[in-house]
Amino acid sequence: MTAYDDLMQFQRETEALGQVAGRLGWDQETMMPEGATPQRAEEHGAMANVLHARRIDPRVGDWLAAAEALDDVSAANLRHIQRNFERTTKVPAKLAAELAKTTSLAHRTWAQCRADENVTGFLPVLQKVVDLRKEEAAAVAGNADPYDALLDDYEAGATGASIGAMFDALRPRLVALRAAILDSDAPQELSGNFDEAAQLALSEKLALAFGYTLNNGRIDKAVHPFSSGSGMDVRITTRTNPTDPFNCFYSTIHEVGHAAYEQGIDGQHLLTPLGAGVSMGVHESQSRIYENQLGRSRAFTGWLYGQMRESFGDFGIPDEDSFFATVNRVNNGFIRTEADEVQYNLHVLLRFDLERALISGDLAVNDLEAAWNDRFAADFGYEVDKPSNGVLQDVHWSEGLFGYFPTYTLGNVYAGCLNVALRKAVPNLDDDLARGDTSAATHWLRANLQQFGGLRSPIDTITHATGEIPSEVPLLDYLEQKFRGIYDL
């Protein structure tokens, strides 16, 4: 056994325990009884303690010093373990456990306060989460920007400054396109009631159509849809709304994009640092290209129109072209996860700026709701009507996920780049999509991106798949071409 072999054997056990910890989170969101919250918080804290101890085990440092990389895979594994070891050793074990316990409790507090429209009840626990994450960020960052230290957790190599510059380039064209659309006549809206059981049945059909493997997964309901796990156990959730089946269908397709990435990673990387998506931005590129460039395309929505008529009968949309426009209708609305492609990134930009201000200390937690409402009114032109449509709508801050939000727009940018490369590689793709056959697209994504897992850095992952350095231009060009066509601009 070499030092590398010893290190990887130890790492496999750490990765396996991390999967167990993730399963605790999945259970909390889907099946855990309400009364178990305090105990689950203790369990999360205990698992965090165990994982933290393993990640800072002195033997890891010794193995890293002695290990030699023999190929690209071993070099990438060592790079990931080294980065994680250096980062984790800077965070005290007590702080890591307190964060896990606090965010577990904060999540349940958020869910109840969201249901009760009670911002005041949520702010004290949010303050504690912010304080703990700021403490963690300071420990990791040293003299660097604390927000960058948090962002690096989700998108290695990214900085607040680089993302801010990209977002500044996105904003003018997005705002101009939004204004032109909202000055035009809107397509027909979907109306009526849609049976929940029929929604879930079609939702599962969509998951399978996009390549999700139920033998290694399952579909459940949750307040906030998510994907969990990797390798041989990758689970997703969705949600239903009796008047909005698109919420169910496109939440499912979105989460299948995440799950397909995890299910598509080469089996040799199972329970190693390469056995999961390399970053949240790259992960989001998969969910967004599945959901939008594929799932909301004219070709695929033509097939979905027929499926909906089989499931629900005549639901008031006369033909496939009208249905395509309805699916992509740009609506005023408050909820990020329900936003159309044009406005979605404006929701993310709002959150990015607010959370950077929270971490820097430029914005107090007690002023967060007012800051959110002011920014929303400025960006969208109307007032937030209730907290669940405003500052309480997202789960992320209750779970301490500061630095996560910008990866959603990064994912859209990456998806725009991937879509250009995919269309060049599969010029007849729309013919397949019109039959509900996504296999040419999903196989291309698996072969060019998904199978490699964490082998390359996030930027290099996209560059390798597309042949181009990522840029926001393809996304903006795609949005303008699509929506100027729909709205006859």
Automatic annotation (TrEMBL):
<keyword id="KW-0482">Metalloprotease</keyword>
<dbReference type="InterPro" id="IPR001333">
    <property type="entry name" value="Peptidase_M32_Taq"/>
</dbReference>
<feature type="binding site">
    <location>
        <position position="284"/>
    </location>
    <ligand>
        <name>Zn(2+)</name>
    </ligand>
</feature>
<keyword id="KW-0121">Carboxypeptidase</keyword>
<feature type="active site" description="Proton donor/acceptor">
    <location>
        <position position="255"/>
    </location>
</feature>
<keyword id="KW-0862">Zinc</keyword>
<dbReference type="Pfam" id="PF02074">
    <property type="entry name" value="Peptidase_M32"/>
</dbReference>
<dbReference type="GO" id="GO:0046872">
    <property type="term" value="F:metal ion binding"/>
</dbReference>
<comment type="function">
    <text>Broad specificity carboxypetidase that releases amino acids sequentially from the C-terminus, including neutral, aromatic, polar and basic residues.</text>
</comment>
<keyword id="KW-0479">Metal-binding</keyword>
<protein>
    <recommendedName>
        <fullName>Metal-dependent carboxypeptidase</fullName>
        <ecNumber>3.4.17.19</ecNumber>
    </recommendedName>
</protein>
<feature type="binding site">
    <location>
        <position position="254"/>
    </location>
    <ligand>
        <name>Zn(2+)</name>
    </ligand>
</feature>
<keyword id="KW-0645">Protease</keyword>
<dbReference type="GO" id="GO:0004181">
    <property type="term" value="F:metallocarboxypeptidase activity"/>
</dbReference>
<feature type="binding site">
    <location>
        <position position="258"/>
    </location>
    <ligand>
        <name>Zn(2+)</name>
    </ligand>
</feature>
<keyword id="KW-0378">Hydrolase</keyword>
<comment type="similarity">
    <text>Belongs to the peptidase M32 family.</text>
</comment>
<dbReference type="GO" id="GO:0006508">
    <property type="term" value="P:proteolysis"/>
</dbReference>
